[in-house]
Design a protein that fits this description.
The protein is an alpha+beta fold and about 210 residues long. The protein contains three helices and 14 strands. The longest helix has 26 residues. It is elongated and about 75 Å long. About 25% of the residues are buried.
Amino acid sequence: MQPQEDIFQKNSAPATESFGDSGKTSVPPPHEKHSVGESIWDFIKFGVLAVVIVIPIRLYIAQPFVVSGASMVPSFQSGHYLIIDEVSYRFFEEPKRGEVVVFRFPSEPSKFLIKRVAGLPGETITIKGNEITIKNEANPDGFGWEQGATTPVESTGNLSVTLASDEYFVLGDNRGASADSRLWGTLKREFIVGRPIVRLFPLSEVGIFPGEWE
């Protein structure tokens, strides 16, 4: 399940007639034709402008991703086309429990994964089958995390992890088919890229903040 980034991506107005005080029709002189050199220079300027605008947006504001794999079923299917908000986590807020995040795989940072946040920094998360218990400063005795729609796992493996101040515990919604923090460990904050803000495809599921649990 690794979302793969998709790379995306004038004519002169015709002469018009105008009427002066005499009522006679006058036609403005034809536009001068641009030389080949001017056309090339216009093309270069347009290209530079596009690069100046598009690259910062793609690198620092929003990126398109295509979901590949079944680890987030039923929230996301393979082929879903998402726009990722890279600004909120960078400047305004930290990831919250239950939010879907896109991040660089710690063992191979050139690859991107999509999972849901289960454990926050400083917490202890305990998993017993499909039940998840969270302990933190506000709940030292722990509480059961009421999850939304998931595809339950059949095995009953147990796991307990205490997170450092810069670590998160992430899970796929399709618990039996997801390689996540249960397998490769905790996720450091520095690897989190952003969260899905828009789903553009399929058209029947277009919407904002896709994957949110009610």
